[in-house]
Amino acid sequence: MNKRNHTKKLKKRIVKTAFQAGEGHIPSAFSILDILWVLYDKILKITPGKYGHPERNRFILSKGHASLGLYAVLGEKGFFSSQELEKFAQYGSFLGGHPDRNKVPGIEASTGSLGHGLPISVGIALGLKIKKIKRAKVYTIIGDGECNEGTIWESLLLASHHQLNNLHCIVDFNHSTDRALGLKNLKRKFLSFGWDTRVIDGHNHKQIFSALKRESKKPIAVIANTIKGAGSRLMENNPAWHHRSPTKEELKQILKELDQHEKTIYKNN
Prior knowledge:
The protein has 269 residues and is of the alpha/beta class. It has helices at residues 3-21, 26-43, 67-76, 117-130, 150-161, 186-192, 205-213, 248-265, and strands at residues 58-61, 138-143, 167-173, 196-201, 220-225.
């Protein structure tokens, strides 16, 4: 199965899961799905059997409300049965609205309160440096809305000061925060904090892979330009869809849109 069909399959799984559960942050999950897939398929090299190895790469989804995207990928990669998604957000399920490291296999940190995932990642990266574990790297995805949190900028300063070149911060720059606070030139801001920074198309698998594989003497930032709700014109950049599930008719429409527009969204891949 090629990458386009694979991500389309996962998007369909995500929207069907949210429909069945009656809740979910579908557009946020769609926004980061391509990044997640490249991470778990090409970069992290994490398998369920070796998950606890001290020299493993680490990934933290700081914008934990996009958990459906991560759950779909973890299920596809065998961390748990994909059928568990059918129980998402139901009583007794270990798959809640936000990732819980004590319940969900493959989760490094419980997240959802915005602004916490990057500080945790900085701490892990610094710990790996102190222990001289050179092979392991730390990757985290933050949302552009999280950049309104002071803890993000404090973490950027700390990571730069300690030259944590084993740390990658990926910004899901889908402009959802523009209505509250425009970030404008985010690349310039990260550069001013001493990070090796690159801007990419967050839906282009080749660009994602290239950006995440590069080495540097500095912490690495990837500003990923994305579309919130990518693949569904009904949801794309529509604030009303931030946290809701589709009706039966909307579900049919979204599934149809995913089939019709996938080639357009990934035309540069």
